[in-house]
Amino acid sequence: MENKSKNESIKCSVSQCKHNMVTEDYCCLDCISVGTHEPDPEVPECTDCNSFCKRTGC
Ligand code: SF4
Q1: pLDDT in tens, the chain (58 residues)
Q2: Domain range spanning residue 30?
Q3: Any atom of ligand 1 within 6 Å of the Cβ of 28
Q4: What is the pTM of this model?
Q5: Burial zone of 42 (CB within 10 Å; 0-12 exposed, 13-18 middle, 19+ buried)
Q6: How far is the CA of 40 from the centre of ligand 1 (A)?
Q7: Ligand 1 in contact with 20 (CB < 6 A)?
């Protein structure tokens, strides 16, 4: 069983990601990579967590 501990510096509510604590809205990674899929990002929705990994099948 993987023992995860939350990183209090990275809040995240994406429970579908295997790095999410689920019971709390935090990430368990030491560091994440954030990027964008837009040529000229203007709103939060333009950004992506590139450390996302689907809970099943990643
Ligand atoms: S890797 Fe990204 S999407 Fe996954 S829990 Fe951490 S911050 Fe959230």
Answers
A1: 567 899 999 999 999 999 999 999 999 999 999 999 999 999 999 999 999 999 986 6
A2: 7-49
A3: no
A4: 0.89
A5: exposed
A6: 23
A7: yes
Q: Say how many Å lie between the CA of residue 43 and the centre of ligand 1.
A: 19
In a domain, 28, yes or no: yes
d(CA 42, CA 36): 10
23 in a structural domain? yes
Assigned domain for 15 exists = yes
Angle at 29 between CA 28 and CA 30, to 5 degrees: 120
Overall number of domains in the chain: 1
